[in-house]
């Protein structure tokens, strides 16, 4: 009965179930130790069906990295979408969305931030490409904000790229810590980073630079 | 002749040569592809001697991670050692020392920041422990600075830990970018991070917090 019912589900739904199961399994056991048996069981399908749809453990892991990175990027992009809002409010909305995602989908965040990086190629390269996409998106926002703040004159492209790297790196680092530290909420982590980053970025937008005495 | 001369070198010197060669080899080829043959050749010793001293490729890589992390920590610790200097000057000195290390020893930085993390356990765990040590050290500095700024009352330990994570994450990310981007000097990268981080941290030290409107 269950098998008959199961067979009626469309391919897209089945595939989503497999990827959901894979995220959980990879996050908990790591790439090497995660088993296709467990993934099939968690997804409620047979192992041959997993291979039929996703080909191999390697392709399954790659598909997971892509899907989770795109989900994260979409969540952040949607949060900062209002171009009429002041830059600090957009940054706040983006950070809150990011830390909320990392807290609500800790397995997804673990796969992206730890597993994808710690199992060599081709995964590290895939994760790096996704990170580049997110960093480019953040750089776009910083560039926009600086043009607004200076009435059309942006800070250099290299400055913007460097600031985006700093911001993305601090967010990654803080999200890893927040998920491992009991009692730290997404809002608290976002507020800490906003306080760390904004006044610095904020002053930069106004051409106020720190310099050695 | 060369071999006779070589045999006269003390063990510590030989070991250092092997570790130097290993850093270069691991940074360039990655853990998997690096060969003990190349490492022995770069170090000017026989392969059996590398095994005799360091036991295995795994132990050699672990020894490399430990030595390089300690070197980096020592350089940063020495730069910020003057407790009489104001906190922003100490942060500047620390950042400059860090980015200078990453620029002068790009192979060392690549091994620590990329290779150690991307080749699974036990290396990722070793790298994480070293990173925890560096983060704890940074947290100590932030805690000190905040106590000074507030006349003895520190911000909470959790705030300090979170800020240290953010600062370390942004420095890691920016150093990776700086080493991959032609023409970015250590001083430029350090100045960017100082500008990003200081006014934010600086305002926090004075209890000035950003809050959503």
From TrEMBL, chains A, B:
Keywords: DNA-binding, Transcription, Transcription regulation. The keyword Kinase does not apply. Residues 35-54 bind DNA. Residues 12-72 form the HTH tetR-type domain. PROSITE patterns: HTH_TETR_2 (PS50977). SUPFAM superfamilies: Homeodomain-like (SSF46689), Tetracyclin repressor-like, C-terminal domain (SSF48498). This is TetR/AcrR family transcriptional regulator. It comes from Streptomyces zaomyceticus.
């Amino acid at each position: 009965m269950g098998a008959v019912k199961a067979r009626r589900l469309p391919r897209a739904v089945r595939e989503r179930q497999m990827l959901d199961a894979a995220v959980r399994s990879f996050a908990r056991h790591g790439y090497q130790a995660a088993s296709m048996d467990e993934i099939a069981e968690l997804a409620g399908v047979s192992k041959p069906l997993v291979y039929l749809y996703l080909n191999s453990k390697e392709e399954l892991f790659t598909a997971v990295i892509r899907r989770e990175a795109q989900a994260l990027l979409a969540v952040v992009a949607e949060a900062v979408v209002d171009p009429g809002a002041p830059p600090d409010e957009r940054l706040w909305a983006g950070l809150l969305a990011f830390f909320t995602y990392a807290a609500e989908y800790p397995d997804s965040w673990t796969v992206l931030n730890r597993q994808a990086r710690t199992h060599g190629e081709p995964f590290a390269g895939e994760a790096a490409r996704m990170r580049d996409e997110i960093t480019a998106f953040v750089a776009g926002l910083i560039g926009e904000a600086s043009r607004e703040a200076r009435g059309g004159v942006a800070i250099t492209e290299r400055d913007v790229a460097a600031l985006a790297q700093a911001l993305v790196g601090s967010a990654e680092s803080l999200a890893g810590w927040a998920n491992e530290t009991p009692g730290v909420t997404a809002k608290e982590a976002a507020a800490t980073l906003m306080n760390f980053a904004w006044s610095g970025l904020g002053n930069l937008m106004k051409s106020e630079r720190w310099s050695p005495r």
